[in-house]
């Protein structure tokens, strides 16, 4: 986390880049592609070697999970719109609601 640098109007700006880099996305893409490839290969191997005898049936759901999980995760991230907060402090500082005293309200202290 970077150290905050004061800016006018009480907002804060961070010196360091809080976002994810392109290399991080590349590693995630390659690892998800590798997991899907392993799942597809495992399913193909089961189909070739064990399907005629219907043995080793545990390989089918395991390989299907490996094959489709990265695609489901990517789809859910695209649908959600990548709305991940970089910093919770930014969310707190961006709130513009005023807090009013309870002196004149119905629930306020009686004088």
UniProtKB/TrEMBL annotation:
<feature type="transmembrane region" description="Helical">
    <location>
        <begin position="58"/>
        <end position="79"/>
    </location>
</feature>
<keyword id="KW-0812">Transmembrane</keyword>
<dbReference type="GO" id="GO:0016020">
    <property type="term" value="C:membrane"/>
</dbReference>
<protein>
    <submittedName>
        <fullName>Uncharacterized protein</fullName>
    </submittedName>
</protein>
<dbReference type="Pfam" id="PF16594">
    <property type="entry name" value="ATP-synt_Z"/>
</dbReference>
<dbReference type="GO" id="GO:0055085">
    <property type="term" value="P:transmembrane transport"/>
</dbReference>
<dbReference type="InterPro" id="IPR032238">
    <property type="entry name" value="ATP-synth_Z"/>
</dbReference>
<dbReference type="InterPro" id="IPR000515">
    <property type="entry name" value="MetI-like"/>
</dbReference>
<keyword id="KW-0472">Membrane</keyword>
<keyword id="KW-1133">Transmembrane helix</keyword>
<feature type="transmembrane region" description="Helical">
    <location>
        <begin position="24"/>
        <end position="46"/>
    </location>
</feature>
């Amino acid at each position: 986390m970077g150290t905050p640098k004061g800016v006018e109007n009480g907002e804060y700006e961070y010196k360091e880049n809080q976002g994810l880099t392109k290399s991080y996305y590349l590693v995630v893409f390659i690892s998800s592609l590798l997991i899907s490839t392993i799942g597809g290969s495992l399913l193909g191997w089961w189909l070739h070697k064990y399907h005629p005898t219907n043995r080793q049936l545990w390989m089918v759901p395991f390989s299907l999970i490996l094959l489709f999980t990265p695609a489901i995760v990517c789809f859910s991230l695209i649908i959600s719109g990548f709305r991940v907060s970089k910093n919770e402090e930014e969310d707190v500082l961006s709130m513009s609601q005023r807090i009013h005293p309870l002196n004149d309200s119905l629930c306020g202290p009686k004088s």
